Predict the structure.
Amino acid sequence: MLTSMQVWRDEVRRIADNGYSTLLMPDVPAMQPAPAPTLAAAATVADLRVGTWVYAAPVRPAWTTAWEAHSLSVLTEGRFELGIGTGRPGIEDQLRELGLPVVASGQRLTEIRKTVTALRELDGPERYTPVVMAVRGPKAQALAAELADTVTFVIPPGETGAESRRLVSGFGANRDIELAQHVSVVGDKVAPFMAPPWTDPTALRAVDSLLVLPSDPAAAADEILRRREELGFSYFIVGSNAADLLADVVADLVGRP
């Protein structure tokens, strides 16, 4: 948890100095500052893109989320991207704690559609806020194929690499959509918020999980390039606790065609 504005500024500068293009924040109430003001502050510290990874649609009214996203796009001069999904596993408990209705996954997808529709209306012809969708099932994939600019795939910890590759390879879209890879473990470092604290890196490596990258920079770079070639991933997300570890990878890969 961030303890002061100075700590946050230092964290933003560290990530920018390591060469990363984008700073993302999760949507975890009561465990961190709210993403919107925190990202707006980050955008004044360094010339980074910023975004949410990802807003949970059941927790946030569609129009309010769209207004917030549009405002962040304006305040960051076009450097904000809206990440949104139907909510992590177990979000039903959080909804009950907040006194919010527990709705079916289909209704959550409807809320995402409402959010993106409202965002496009608020942006108007002069602005375009990119949308990232976290997807798993066929209905979520179909909506993302229609609305999203970037897609990331929800991969359970126990899923084998082969199963995840089939999921990614089966995604179809009739337009150009960027594919993003959520990497919650680098070597033995488990990223807070991106994976449960009981995550076992050894077990993930045993099933060749796509949630893992090696800690050796050369091996990590090779693996990133392999996933790009085989699966089409061009956007990789890692935890801030691995930012220094992979700085050489960023320096090696930035600017490659």
